[in-house]
Design brief:
By secondary structure, the chain is an alpha/beta fold. The protein has one domain: Rossmann fold (3-Layer(aba) Sandwich). The chain is 41% helix and 20% strand. The chain is built from three helices and four strands, in the order E-H-E-E-H-E-H. Strands 1-2-3-4 form a four-stranded parallel sheet, with helices on both faces. The radius of gyration is 14 Å and the shape is globular. The protein starts with 5 loop residues before the first strand and ends with a helix.
């Protein structure tokens, strides 16, 4: 049985844990999504993450947004920062969490599908 690609989703400080794990398992982790995360807490592991990484932050979560911009610059693999306008740290505003879910779903579909296709042809 073929091994399916792995995707990690981490929220808040859990995003750092997901990124560190992705750095430690570069051949297994095919995609990472951080929701309102603190990727900066992953420290030097950020530079070793090769998995495509999506950072999702609320537009009103100014300090976390700033930390995500800094972390984005450290990431070496495919990367993107999505900002949910009007959302705060917990994405409690109407429609905010749905937007997060849509961005995460699309990211995982794109990169997990690609990883699965590569595994099938290898």
């Amino acid at each position: 049985m073929a091994q399916l690609p792995i995707g990690y989703l981490g929220a808040s400080t859990g995003a750092a844990a997901a990124l560190v794990a992705a750095a430690e398992l570069p051949d297994l982790v095919a995609a990472v999504v951080s929701r309102g995360g603190r990727p900066d807490l992953a420290g030097t592991a950020l530079r070793r993450v090769v998995a495509p990484t999506l950072l999702i932050v609320g537009g009103e979560d100014l300090r976390v947004l700033e930390l995500n911009w800094i972390a984005l610059a450290e990431l070496r693999g495919p990367k993107k920062l999505e900002i949910i306008p009007g959302a705060t740290h917990l994405f409690e505003e109407k429609g905010a969490l749905e937007s997060v879910a849509q961005f995460a779903k699309n990211w995982f579909l794109l990169y997990l599908f690609r990883a699965n296709q590569r595994a099938r042809t290898a």
